[in-house]
């Protein structure tokens, strides 16, 4: 982003007014179908941030944030704004509520959010963009590797590319 | 942080229940006095995150988030939860409100939040920890440099250490 482009950005926005991301998921099938009902607004990208992403993410009833996963190098954080999604980890589940937050350090417990309620859940999710990251999915035949261009590539656990 | 330490962390917390940071400011005097009335809860650190910080920051009436500043390498983002702080930049001011957000890419416009109202303002602030960062303060005789240990060192604009 050039200096001129940076200067032309709006100074502040209503987060809910940001456009939703067009591509619903990076996952290959059959995994992409499992996060149907998830909508992300890339707030950080909107302001030209490069080092981390901040998404305003909405989970419809029954939707989930991601497959159960952990990152090898990147940290993640969520802050609940509306609704009561369930934080699911490898060893348990915790009901969240507005004003609650959770952090997921690189190499920590695998995790995801699942909306088991009848109303939408809305939260902020933050993740950095440290290169060389890998995503591990303990419950699925999936492994993700961040390539040199910053794109996720997905593999079976035996190394075959999806 | 060891694997055992990571596993002993709570999975989720009420953000407001997190302890406040004990040291109110890194700034040298006379600048530290100018951010009196600012309180930060280091939510990201609480969960052992290393790559970025997430603070729950409260500005009492009259308080400000920081001196007017920009970072050379680190990005910043704020999301307003309560109150109506004013976003002040080098070229203007914008009143914020709950649900509004703003991002500050490295090398962008200098900025700070000022609470010009009679009630507290509460917001989330996110910043990454890219090494080699510098803080520029266009309105003050101050420059900040992040040292190899990740601590901020403060200088006059003629290079003398504070």
From TrEMBL, chains A, B:
Q: Which Gene3D superfamilies match?
A: Jelly Rolls
Q: Does the keyword Transcription regulation apply?
A: no
Q: Which UniProt keywords apply?
A: Metal-binding
Identify the residues that the record assigns to the Cupin type-2 domain, covering every copy. Answer: 56-126
List the Pfam families hit by this protein, alphabetically: Cupin_2 (PF07883)
Q: Record keywords: Cell membrane included?
A: no
An example of a GO molecular function for this protein is: metal ion binding
Which residues lie within the region annotated Disordered?
A: 1-28
Task: State the name under which the record lists this protein.
Answer: Cupin
Task: Please tell me the species this chain comes from.
Answer: Methylocystis echinoides
Q: Which CDD domains match?
A: cupin_SPO2919-like
């Amino acid at each position: 982003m050039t200096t001129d482009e940076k200067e032309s950005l709006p100074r502040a926005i209503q987060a809910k007014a940001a456009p939703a991301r067009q591509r619903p998921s990076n996952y290959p099938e059959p995994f992409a179908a499992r996060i149907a009902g998830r909508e992300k607004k890339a707030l950080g990208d909107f302001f030209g941030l490069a080092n981390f992403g901040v998404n305003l993410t909405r989970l419809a009833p029954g939707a989930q944030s991601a497959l159960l996963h952990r990152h090898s190098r990147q940290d993640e954080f969520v802050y609940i704004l509306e609704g009561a999604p369930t934080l699911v980890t490898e060893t348990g589940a915790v009901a969240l509520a507005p004003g609650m937050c959770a952090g997921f350090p690189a190499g920590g417990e695998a995790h995801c959010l699942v909306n088991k309620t009848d109303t939408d859940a809305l939260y902020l999710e933050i993740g950095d963009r440290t290169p060389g990251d890998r995503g591990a999915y303990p419950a699925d035949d999936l492994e993700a590797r961040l390539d040199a261009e910053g794109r996720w590539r997905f593999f079976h656990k035996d190394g075959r590319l999806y």
